[in-house]
Amino acid sequence: MASLVVLYTKPADPEGFDAHYRDTHLPLAQTVPGATWTVTRMTGTPRGGDPAYYLMATATFASDADLQAAMASPQMRETGRDAAQLTKDYGTEATMLVGGDF
Predict the structure, then answer these.
(1) 3-class secondary structure, 55
(2) Span 2-25, mean pLDDT?
(3) Rounded average pLDDT over 13-39
(4) Alpha-carbon torsion angle 85, 83, 51, 42, nearest 10
(5) Residue 101 has what pLDDT?
(6) I need a labelling partner for 2 at 20 to 30 A (CA). Which of 39, 53, 61, 100 fits?
(7) For 46-98, how does the pLDDT look when each residue is reduced to its tens digit (9 = 90+)?
(8) Is-contact 22 41, C-beta < 8 A?
């Protein structure tokens, strides 16, 4: 199994970000071939502090080859273009990580 993890910092306009993410970005991401998505909004830390990240999106794939094929797909390119606009419009940063089974 392979994973793509995207971590977003807190946006300047959380309500606008959430609406765009839910109504525009996530539907695009869900068209990426072979990807199963989970999205988690961070609400705090175990000690009650502010989290370093606002949102975590994780796409899982059956294999590294499936992840690589998805990364090269037109659907991922369109999702990436929207993510770039999302970060620009809402003043957030996105960190992308790739991982595999441990």
Answers:
(1) strand
(2) 97
(3) 97
(4) 120
(5) 84
(6) 53
(7) 999 999 999 999 999 999 999 999 999 999 999 999 999 999 999 999 999 99
(8) no
Q: Tokens for 62?
A: 């059956």
> For 93, what's the count of Cα atoms within 13 Å in the CB-facing half-sphere?
3
The separation between the first and the last C-alpha atoms of the chain, rounded to the nearest angstrom, is 10
**Which ranges of 45-73 does DSSP label H, i.e. alpha helix?**
64-71
Amino acid code (one letter) for 98:
V
- Give the containing element (helix H, strand E) for 80: helix 74-90
Which H or E element spans position 93? none
Question: So what's the architecture of 2-57+68-100 in CATH?
Answer: 2-Layer Sandwich (3.30)
Residue 88, both tokens: 């620009």
Note the pLDDT of residue 87. Answer: 96
Q: Tell me the backbone φ, ψ of residue 52, rounded to 5 degrees.
A: -70, -25
